[in-house]
Design goal:
There is one protein chain. By secondary structure, the protein is of the alpha+beta class. The chain has helices at about 5-10, 35-40, 70-85, 135-150, 160-170, 175-185, 190-210, 215-230, 285-300; strands spanning about 15-20, 30-35, 65-70, 100-105, 115, 125-135, 245-250, 255-260, 265-270. The strands form three sheets. Strands 2-1-3 form a three-stranded antiparallel sheet. The protein has a three-stranded antiparallel sheet with strand order 5-4-6. Strands 7-8-9 form a three-stranded antiparallel sheet. Helix 6 (about 175-185) crosses helix 7 and helix 7 runs antiparallel to helix 8. The two termini are about 20 Å apart. The model has no long low-confidence stretch (mean pLDDT about 95).
Length: about 300
């Protein structure tokens, strides 16, 4: 790792985000995502492990750019959006590996529960949440929600065995509306609802471990990770057909993104004396922090 790259890596935060490498001509070589940007980017100049096909790319990298996201889930979506727009030479898969999924919250008396679909529809009494990346994570999140808020046990028409299980959990049809609202609050990412559900699930995991039910405890730990995944902040891909620009400016560097049909992408950076156009209010912090990071990385290249 040369001194310039070392300084640029050191300037990256230990935060989730998306990064890209450019060569000496300014061409984008590779786009990736990270749980911690600094550590992930630094790893390209160490043991590449299962990324050995990138060994010939690394010496060509002369510039690093990065976007800080609010969660790893958000970074995964932004990476997917960018790769679907344009696939750099050293990326292999447009859009990443995860499958998009939605969670349907059904509050109807006979079909109450939460289920996963890949293509959401519209129906009275059914609320769609998502999109999320990863069908396995979505299914594990459903299991986690049912452990704490057993909505499916409060529907009508249960079999005898299902009624016995519902009785053991103290759930009846009269609890359906309350359980549906509890699940909705979690999927709306309401902080108190998420914290309470996470705490309840953690207690179930700990009881399983104390009873030496280690396989069950491990499954619940996976469910906790998946619940955190679907409740983490994620705004770069939505169901709303929104279209607007997100721009940030700092120290002569303008960073721009475009939201089209609910997908944030088209990441550009350039030097200009003109300040950014005002970003939508809830995107101001995102635009500011990424413009400041872009300006710092650009300064190191001067």
């Amino acid at each position: 790792m040369g001194p310039l790259i070392r300084r640029m890596v050191a300037a990256l935060p230990a935060a989730p985000g998306v990064y890209r490498f450019r060569d000496g001509t300014g061409r984008v070589l590779y786009v990736g995502r990270a749980t911690e940007l600094r550590a992930r980017v630094a790893s390209y100049w160490g043991d590449l492990g299962d990324r050995r096909h990138l060994a010939r790319m690394v010496p060509r990298v002369t510039a690093i750019e990065a976007v800080v996201c609010d969660s790893v889930h958000e970074a995964a979506w932004l990476e997917r959006n960018l790769l679907e727009e344009r696939l750099p030479r050293w990326n292999r898969t447009p859009g990443g590996q995860e499958v998009p999924a939605y969670l349907l919250l059904d509050a109807r008396p006979r079909t109450a529960g939460v289920r996963m679909v890949h293509e959401p529809g519209e129906a009275a009494g059914v609320t769609v949440f998502g999109p999320y990346l990863g069908g396995l994570r979505a299914r594990q999140a459903i299991t986690a929600l049912h452990r704490v808020h057993p909505l499916a046990s409060a529907r009508g028409g249960l079999t005898g065995g299902e009624r016995d299980l519902a009785a053991q959990r103290g759930v009846t049809e009269t609890d359906r509306e309350g359980l549906a609202e509890a699940v909705a609050a979690v999927l709306r990412r309401e902080p108190l609802a998420v914290a309470d559900t996470t705490a309840s699930l953690t207690a179930v995991r700990d009881r399983a471990a104390a009873a030496l039910a280690f396989e069950l405890a491990a499954r619940i730990q996976d469910e906790l990770r998946s619940l955190a995944w679907v409740t983490a902040p994620q705004r770069v891909t939505t169901r709303a057909p929104d279209q607007f620009a997100v721009q940030g400016w700092a120290d002569g560097v303008l960073v721009s993104f475009t939201m089209r049909e609910g997908r944030l992408g088209t990441w550009t950076q350039r030097r200009t004396a003109r300040p950014a156009a005002p970003a939508p209010p809830d995107w101001v912090a995102f635009a500011r922090r990424n413009a400041e990071l872009a300006a710092e990385l650009a300064r190191l290249r001067r």
